[in-house]
Amino acid sequence: MARLNSRRSRATESETEDGLSRESTPLSTARNDRKRMRQSVSVEPDIASVDRESPPRSKKYAGSRNVEAQASRSAGMREKRKHQPGAIVRVKLTNFVTYTSAEFFPGPNLNMVIGPNGTGKSTLVCAICLGLGYPPSVLGRAKDPAEFVKHGCKEATIEIELQRATTGSNRSERNPIIVRMIKKDTNKSEFWVNGNKTSNKAVQDMAKNDFNIKCDNLCQFLPQDRVVEFAQMTPVQLLTATLDAAADPVALEYHGHLKQLREQQTNLMAHNQGDRENLQNLEKRQTSQQSEIERLRERKEIQQKIQWLELCRTIPKYQETKKRASELRKKRTDLQVGTDRLRAETAPALRKVNEKQQYADAAKRNRDQIRREVKQAEVECRKVEEEIEKFATRQQECEQRNTAEQNSAKRDKQEWGRHKQLVANYKAQKENEPEPYDTKTANERIQQHKDRLRELNQKLEDLKTKASPLQPQGKALQARKKELEDKLNNLETQIGQRESRLEELSAHTHRAWQWVKSNQQRFKKEVFGPPAVTVTVKDPRMAKALESLTQGNDLKVITAQCKDDFKILQEELTHRQRLHDVSLRVCSIDNLSGFQPPMNDEQLHNLGLEQWALDCLEGPPQVLAMLCQERYLHQCGIASNDVTQEQHDAISNSVLKSYIAGNKSVRFTRRAEYGAAGISAQIRNIRQPRVWTDRPVDDSRREQINQEIRSVNHDIASVAEAVERIRQQGKELREEREEEEEARKKLTKEKEDYQNAMTAWNGLDTKIAQAEQKMQQCEDNISRVRDRCTEILRERDDHIFAQAEIVLQYADAVNVLQERNAKLIEAEVLLVEAENDSENLKQMNQEIRNNLEKKKRELEETARESSAAAQQAQALMAEVKALKAQGEKLQADTGDNGLLELMSELTQKTEQELGGLLDSEQARLELTGGGPDAANRIQEFEERAKKIERLRNKLADFHEQQESYMTAITEIRGKFESELGPIIEKIDAAFAESFRRIGCAGTVTVHKASSEDPAVCTEETGGIENGLDFANWAIHISVTFRNNEPLQLLDSHRQSGGERAVSTIFYLMALQSLSRSPFRLVDEINQGMDPTNERMVHGRMVDLAVAAEKARAEGKDDIGGSQYFLITPKLLNGLRYERGMTVLCIVSGENMPSASDKKTRDEDGNVVVQKGRKIDFTALARRARELGTRMNDGRRVDSGVAMGGRSIQVGA
Question: Three-class SS of residue 1114?
Fold first, then answer.
């Protein structure tokens, strides 16, 4: 067993268990679950069994019945020590993480929670946070509250008793007791306050608003997993956290309001800065363009006149068109007179022609009338013919019906004879009954065959089920064999060796690259493989240096050229194939021109370096560009030999960030604010190359592949043997199935034949009756046929008589048609004679007619031209009127009568003269110059003048707003500084005092960041030290741990980890006297301290605790400070302990006694409760004295555990 004063090392990651349930740890089978059990010396648990998991018996929390009793148990402690309102008086845990049942009674001042790693110290931290309603994210541990339920239990309970407030609006008669029950199955929680059910938000609001408890503020509550986060807080974040923890809430409101006002002011200034610069530029441009605009305006007037002249082309065109229309009207009148005179002279001759033409037209009309009459007669003849044909058809139908009836009688006679023969045959068959057949026996034999067939089919299906996985298994083995053979062959090629090394480096990346090569067609652009495969080293001697520049995943990166291809890779490799060790990048840079070295080659050689790392590699530009983006290969120089100290110093003062020389890799870190002293170099030895190497593949790799091939061949043979065995069994089963099927079919056929014969024999009586009935029907049909034939012949004779009458009518119609055809021939002859006479007379008077037609055409042409000219003149007149209206509107709107004067001037001018005026004005326009955008420049000039006026008005409003912002900022800043100043002064005093006591120095100041904007760097605002950058106001902590060393700003570069830890805890201690929070908690912050720093910090913390205890003893109420929890797994020997502090020792192990009450029954059947055993540290101290262990004033032993009075509180 280890000594009491032995120092326990910090737990590794595998030993951490304080905040997580152990799902993988099986339940102990030992009685009372002794494994990992925690108990308290002051706890009398009301749980009958450790393994009890039943929920409360009612919806109201069952533990509420014990609220008063629990409050009374801690009353004695509160009588001696006074807790601040909101301080933690008691914490009780049930089935929480590793605790089965435990209860803690923290003191009002410093509480040191000690115990080895893994005993559950941080579990107490988790319980406080969760019990006050905060989520697990505040702890930085588990995600869900259900993960804090002990393994194997259904629920966990956290009970926290806080010190009540005796004054103020939230004063109470008793301490508030908060209970949180966590359900593991539903991951939900239930809350009670003093036995009354409430909500999570209500509990959290009570903690924040009534007691100012903020577990999400790292200055108040610093759990183990967030210590690093606190150390990484920026000075700006530290100021916000300090204000939240120590200042009045109005200070944070002032700070936020200042940042908001300053942001609005900055935005306004930035916006109006552009307006001011824009106004100056506009005014300069306006002045420089004044003379040019005047010349452009003159040009614009000339352009306007040219435009008007173009519009006035209508005026001379209208005058000419009007004159031509008048001339055409006179010509039309003359032609009309001549035409009338010619028509009168030729009238007698034309009259005779017309008379002949009228006679020919009358003859034609007569001929057409007779044609119509002939067609009518033909129609009448066709109608009579159709009647004759109709009666002939009816006669034929009667003959056919008569023949059909006679044929029907013949068929009935034949049918009667056939059925008579059937009756005789059926009666003969009825006398021969089929032989009897045992159907039941046949059915049993058939069923036996069916059962056997079903059994055989099931065996075949079983064989098929066995064979179904063998085929894909065989294919997979064949594919695996081919893959291994390809790998073996590839080991002889350079590409194969690279891919083999890639597979050794990352099997997932190798699989991913194989898939990419097989599916390049799915991508929009080519996807490049890992640098381990696609990039080669030009000089093998540099391989070690180049590979040392890369890190873990650099050589395994698969590079896509677009985001769409990246999404395809991510979906396929990560989500579908679930390949986790795969790195993907997007790089669309197809050349390396953008990656230029920071200096030329000559400068590089002067520094003792030979070349740039990028120049030593060869591969796709996209892959090399990706490496440059990740590792800056284009900015790293390399050399095969070491450099001298002078060259190293020169490189450190150059722009290079890193270099490699010989077997050393050097990387520089530069901090400009410290000048030459701010340069530090990190030097490390470079490793041997694993990927970019020309070493041959290990023979063991070949032997491994050959061994795998032999194994695969053996598996293939086994699969083939199994397949053949199944095939043979299937063949035998199928042959037996065919025999059984044949026997079943034979029996079935015999049974069916017997059944068919019996069915036929039983049906003979019905068939005889049906045949006799059919014979009777045939006899009836034959007698009816004679009557129908007589009726048909009588109908035929009626049709013959009617047809004879129609034939006589047809003869009369033919005679009428012949008469009308004779009249038609006569009319045709008269028409030919009349047309010949008319044509001869027309030819004799053709010349007269031609002259008259010519005069008519000329008159019509002239009339059309006159009408067109008149219409054109009217249209032009309308245009002239519209142009005049435009000129009048222009005069009315602008007073410009230039267009009207120009129209009046052009009334007497011709189109040619107008063209001359246009040429003259065009020449003037060319002399003025100006370009095609002259009009745009004039418009731009005028718009600019309007914009200048608007900007001047806007800037006047800006100055008023600026003065308003500055007034508000000055007023609020004064209030904020009045709140902030005293707080920082007290923190600085307490911080400096803590450092003075350990022989060091430290100070805390407020850095009031200033704005560098020249617009606000005025005398009124304080110049360059204006302090207006409120968003970057910060707390600067400066410390020194050595004599003759100036104060230095606390950061991760100047001080060691232990020094930073000391400074951090002193800062938190400085907040004690100012803290508005009732308690403060720090978990394992001393782990990074060396013994000296830890001893100094411990002594200062004890001093504060003692001071608070003395102040309470003197009856002072306002003593400053608050309850403090320090969680630590290790303590030094010989530390000082005083009565003002409390030590909570947490013990754990398999030999812990059960704290559960044991229930038994006596002889009378009454229940007897035996209390569980407790851990008694007083007995430990007594035994230590008996053994002669050195004691100092009865307050401590060598282990550092306080033993006097009530300063000991033991948690399970």
Answer: coil
Residue 974: count of CB within 10 angstroms of its CB: 11
Question: What pLDDT, on a 0 to 100 scale, did the predictor assign at position 396?
Answer: 84
Question: For residue range 931-957, what is the model confidence (pLDDT) as tens digits?
Answer: 656 667 767 777 778 778 877 777 777
Residue 586: beta bridge partners? 560
CA-angle at 745, arms to 742 and 750, nearest 5°:
130
Q: Which amino acid is at 297?
A: R
What secondary structure does DSSP assign to 1058-1093, as a single string? Answer: HHHHHHHHHHHHHTTTT--SSEEEEESGGGG--HHH
> DSSP alpha helices (H): ranges in 549-693?
563-569, 601-606, 621-631, 645-652
562/571 Cα distance (integer angstroms): 15
> CA 309, CA 223: separation in Å to the nearest integer?
92
Q: Which amino acid is at 869?
A: A
Which is it for strands 110-114 and 1123-1128: parallel, antiparallel or unpaired?
Answer: parallel
DSSP string, 835-874: HHHHHHHHHHTHHHHHHHHHHHHHHHHHHHHHHHHHHHHH
Which residue carries 């045959």 as its tokens?
425
Q: Give residue 932's pLDDT.
A: 59
Q: What is the pLDDT of residues 692-709, one digit of tens each?
A: 776 555 556 667 777 888
3-class state of residue 107 by DSSP: coil
Tokens of 1012: 């560098």
CA distances from 823 to 126, 361, 374, 826, 832 (A): 133, 18, 9, 5, 15
Rounded CA gap, 708 and 895, in Å?
105
Is the alpha carbon torsion for 298, 300, 305, 309 positive or negative?
A: positive
Helix (DSSP H) and strand (DSSP E) numbers for the chain = 29, 26
Q: Which two tokens stand for residue 1179?
A: 């007995």
Dist CA 326 CA 812 (whole Å): 77
Strand partners, 1127: 113, 1083
Residue 1003 pairs with which residues in a beta bridge? 1038
Residue 682 near residue 648 (C-beta atoms within 8 A): no
pLDDT digits (tens, 9 = 90+) for 476-496: 888 877 777 776 666 555 666
Q: Pairing mode, if any, of strands 658-661 and 664-670?
A: antiparallel
* 1002 bridge partner residues: 1039
| CA–CA separation, 556 and 507 (whole Å) | 10
Find tokens 């533990």 and name the residue.
63
- How is residue 13 written in tokens? 């990651």
In this structure, are residues 46 and 101 in contact, taking their beta carbons and an 8 Å threshold? no
pTM exceeds cut of 0.70: no
Axis-axis angle for helices 764-844, 699-762 (nearest 10): 110
Provide mean pLDDT across the span 1181-1210: 48
Q: Which of 530, 592, 528 is nearest to 557 (CA)?
A: 530
**Looking at per-residue confidence, does 491 or 361 come out higher?**
361
CA 492 – CA 696 distance, rounded (Å):
9
Six token digits for residue 293: 């605009």
Straight-line distance from the first to the last Cα atom of the chain, in angstroms, rounded to the nearest whole number: 20
* Alpha helix stretches (DSSP H) within 929-1045: 934-997
Q: Which residue shows structure tokens 């039943």?
A: 54
Task: Using the structure block, give the residue that is written with the tokens 């065996």.
Answer: 459
Which neighbouring-strand residues pair with 685? 664
Considering only residues 1090 and 509, tell me which one the structure prediction assigns the higher pLDDT: 509
The two three-digit tokens of residue 1171, written as one number: 């209390």
Q: What is the pLDDT of residue 461?
A: 87
Six-digit token pair at 413? Answer: 């006679």
3-class SS at 643?
A: coil
Residue 77 has pLDDT above 60, yes or no: no
Classify the C-alpha dihedral 63-69-73-79 as positive or negative. Answer: positive
Sign of the Cα torsion 558, 562, 568, 570 reads positive
Distance (Å, whole) CA 561 – CA 588: 4
Question: pLDDT tens digit string along 391-425?
Answer: 888 888 888 888 888 888 888 888 888 888 888 88
Structure token pair of residue 459: 């065996």
Q: Which of 57, 66, 37, 38 is nearest to 161 (CA)?
A: 66
- Number of Cβ atoms within 10 Å of the Cβ of 234: 12
